[in-house]
Design a protein that fits this description.
313 residues, alpha+beta, two-stranded antiparallel sheet, 8 helices, 32% helix, globular
Length: 313
C-alpha cells in the first residue's frame, strides 16, 4: 500500500525548500498507484503532485524521474502544442494534480510493469480527469491579466459558442455540449458572460424555457441544459463582447475556455464578482486575485492573478 501521506509530505518539503527545479525518483508502479488513488479516492494528493503525459523518462531500474517546481508554474510541451493544434495523441497531454507542479511525463512504455487493467485505469484517470486538476489552466484560459507562459490545453477540450440573439445562445450551448459528448467527453460546466446570464434569468422569471434553465433560490443562474454555470464579467477574447457565451468545459474545470489573452477592464459593476473570484481562485488553485492599477492613477482597471511564475522563462 502506498503511503500517500508520507509521499505528500516529502513532495511538500521538496517544493518548499528550493527556488530551483529539482528532481526526485520514485518507482513507476508507485506513481501509477498514486495516480489511481488520487483519481478514485477524492484526489488525496490535490495541491501536491502534478503529472504531465509527455514522455516519461525511465530512471535506473524500475524508477521514473519526477521534476518538482517549487511554485505554481505554466509550462508548454511540444506534445501539448501538437494537441492544441488538433493532433490528439492519448499519451501526449498534460495532467496537473497539484499547485506545486511536480511534472511526470507518462508514456505507455513507462507503464509496462503495471498490469493491463492498472494501465487502463491510469490512462483513463489521466485522460478524463485532468481538466479539473490543472492549476495553470485557470490562469491561462481566463487570463485575468498577470499570467505568464503559454496555454497548452488542447482545443478539443472546449467548444466555443458565440452568442448572437438569445435564441442562438440556446442552440450554441446545446451544440457545444453535444459536440463534446460525440468526442467521448462528459461536459458538465458552462462559462458565460454576465449579460447573457441576466437575459437567461429574465427568461426564466418570465416562465420561458424552464425546461432548459434552472435558477437557484437566490435568483442566480444554476444550470443551462443540465450544465453547471460559471458567470464571468469578462469577454472571452480581446475582440469579443461580454455578451458572448464563452465555452462548454469538462469535469468541473472553470478554466478550459477557448479564448485567452483578456486584458479585462474592471469596473464597479463587477465588484461582487471580484470577491467571488478571489475566494474561488484561492481555495481551488492557491493563487491570489488582486485588483490591478494599470496606469498608476490609483484606480483599478483590471483584475489580475498574483504569484504566477514560468520556471522556463
Amino acid at each position: 500500500m502506498v503511503d500517500v501521506a508520507k509521499l505528500q509530505k516529502e513532495f511538500e518539503e521538496l517544493a518548499n525548500t528550493t527556488t530551483s527545479d529539482i528532481s526526485a525518483i520514485i518507482k513507476s508502479e508507485v506513481f501509477a498507484k498514486l495516480i489511481v488513488e488520487e483519481a478514485t479516492k477524492g484526489r488525496l494528493l490535490a495541491g501536491v503532485i502534478a503529472a504531465s503525459q509527455e514522455d516519461l523518462t525511465k530512471g535506473d531500474g524500475d524508477t521514473v524521474k519526477v521534476r518538482v517546481f517549487p511554485k505554481i508554474s505554466v509550462a508548454q510541451t511540444a506534445e501539448g502544442a501538437a494537441n492544441e493544434a488538433g493532433a490528439y495523441k492519448p499519451f501526449a497531454s498534460t495532467v496537473t494534480i497539484n499547485r506545486y507542479s511536480v511534472t511526470v511525463p507518462v508514456t505507455a512504455e513507462s507503464l509496462y510493469e503495471a498490469s493491463v487493467d492498472l494501465q487502463a485505469q491510469i490512462v483513463n484517470s489521466i485522460a478524463l480527469g485532468w481538466a479539473d486538476k490543472m492549476d495553470e489552466v485557470i490562469v491561462n484560459k481566463l487570463d485575468l491579466g498577470a499570467a505568464t507562459g503559454t496555454n497548452y490545453v488542447p482545443a478539443y477540450k472546449a467548444e466555443l459558442a458565440t452568442a448572437g440573439d438569445l435564441s442562438d445562445v440556446y442552440e450554441k450551448i446545446k451544440d457545444a455540449r453535444d459536440g463534446l459528448r460525440k468526442k467521448g467527453w462528459n461536459p458538465d460546466t458552462l462559462v458565460i458572460g454576465y449579460d447573457v446570464a441576466q437575459q437567461l434569468i429574465a427568461e426564466y422569471e418570465s416562465n420561458l424555457n424552464r425546461k432548459v434553465i434552472q435558477v437557484d433560490d437566490n435568483g442566480n443562474l444554476k444550470s443551462v441544459y443540465g450544465l453547471k454555470v460559471i458567470v464571468t464579467p469578462f469577454a472571452p477574447d480581446v475582440s469579443a463582447t461580454a455578451n458572448e457565451v464563452v465555452a462548454v468545459v469538462l469535469d468541473s474545470s472553470v478554466a478550459v475556455v477557448e479564448a485567452r489573452g483578456m486584458p479585462a477592464k474592471f469596473s464597479e459593476k463587477y465588484e461582487p464578482e471580484y470577491d467571488l473570484y478571489k475566494e474561488v481562485f484561492n481555495a481551488y488553485w492557491g493563487v491570489d486575485v488582486v485588483k490591478a492599477d494599470l496606469d498608476g492613477d490609483s484606480t483599478a482597471e483590471a483584475i489580475g492573478i498574483a504569484q504566477v511564475v514560468n520556471p522556463s522563462a
